[in-house]
């Protein structure tokens, strides 16, 4: 049997795709947090990453602590917290 080696980029791409397709329940969020997200139609990591911070904070019962929980869960699966834009002195 001959093995066909997979390109590292292909493996990384597949890993990214798998992480993006994970449900919000799979990334370790509290049930209440998952319920809040699902009420707004946010079911996958991909959906979550496409939602702006302000939109998340506008969800009922979703505050800064819940947002921090979401960011920490995303970091655990390899996505970095958004950094505020740097301001340069004039």
From TrEMBL:
Keywords linked to the UniProt accession: DNA-directed RNA polymerase, Nucleotidyltransferase, Transcription, Transferase
GO CC term (a single one): DNA-directed RNA polymerase complex
Biological source species: Adhaeretor mobilis
InterPro entries: RNAP_asu_C (IPR011260)
The protein, known as: DNA-directed RNA polymerase subunit alpha
Domain RNA polymerase alpha subunit C-terminal: 15-75
EC identifiers of the protein: 2.7.7.6
Gene Ontology biological process terms, A to Z: DNA-templated transcription
């Amino acid at each position: 049997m001959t093995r066909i080696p997979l390109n590292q980029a292909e493996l990384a791409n597949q890993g990214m795709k798998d992480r993006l397709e994970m449900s919000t329940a799979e990334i370790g969020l509290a049930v209440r947090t998952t319920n809040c997200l699902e009420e707004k139609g946010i079911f996958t990591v991909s959906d979550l990453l496409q939602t702006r911070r302000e939109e998340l904070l506008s969800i009922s019962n979703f505050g800064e602590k819940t947002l921090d929980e979401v960011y920490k869960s995303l970091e655990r699966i390899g996505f970095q917290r958004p950094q505020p834009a740097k301001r340069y002195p004039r």
